[in-house]
Inverse folding.
């Protein structure tokens, strides 16, 4: 029980969440095979970069796909799927879906139907976002922003939008709340002492009886 308690107390939570200002950004990406670093054939169906739109803290991603007539299903696991526009003459369309995070891959289900080749196949691919390529819509660098992780440390993002968690740039906002480990050890020792005392006391009582 004590070990479990200590694990809960000292387990670090280093999740860092980057908050972008409202606006439009561009971001490069690659369409990979599921759980792989290898590009899928579907990678050639999409024009890069994508457009990341932030409004009231919510993020959506818009992509332009080629061979629109072949892709009969396009569904992101993050929801918010919709068709923004379509050009049948160019055989292209722009799709949109929610993108809560551009630092982790987004699984997307696609179905490709090519009647002339008698090819009909549904599969899942991973859209992998290149956070270092993030730029403002006009091509300018994204201004540095301060974000906060779960350890109450201010973390900066550099001009390319990448979160920088190096110790040289981390500032402790509240030193008193960062002494979790020593406090946990003291608490562990205290609980151990109480437990040992109760065991010895019970042992003595049993001998008396």
């Amino acid at each position: 029980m004590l070990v479990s308690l200590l694990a809960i107390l000292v387990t670090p939570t280093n999740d860092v969440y980057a908050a972008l200002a409202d606006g439009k950004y561009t971001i490069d990406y690659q369409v990979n095979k599921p759980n792989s670093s290898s590009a899928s054939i579907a990678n050639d169906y999409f024009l890069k970069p994508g457009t990341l739109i932030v409004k009231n803290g919510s993020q959506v991603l818009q992509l332009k796909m080629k061979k629109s007539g072949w892709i009969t299903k396009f569904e992101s696991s993050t929801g918010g799927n919709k068709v923004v526009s379509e050009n049948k003459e160019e055989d292209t369309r722009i799709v949109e879906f929610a993108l809560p995070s551009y630092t982790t891959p987004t699984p997307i289900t696609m179905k490709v139907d090519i009647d002339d080749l008698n090819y009909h196949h549904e599969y899942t691919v991973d859209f992998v976002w290149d956070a270092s390529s993030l730029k403002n819509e006009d091509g300018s660098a994204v201004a540095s922003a301060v974000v906060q992780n779960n350890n109450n440390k201010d973390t900066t993002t550099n001009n390319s939008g990448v979160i920088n968690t190096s110790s040289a740039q981390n500032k402790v906002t509240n030193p008193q709340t960062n002494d979790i480990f020593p406090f946990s050890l003291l608490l562990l020792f205290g609980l151990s002492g109480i437990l040992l005392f109760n065991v010895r006391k019970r042992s003595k009582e049993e001998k008396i009886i």
User: Anything to note?
Assistant: The domain at 23-140 is CATH 2.60.40.1850 (Immunoglobulin-like). Helices lie at 2-10, 180-208. The mean pLDDT is 78. Residues 188 and 206 are 27 Å apart (CA to CA).
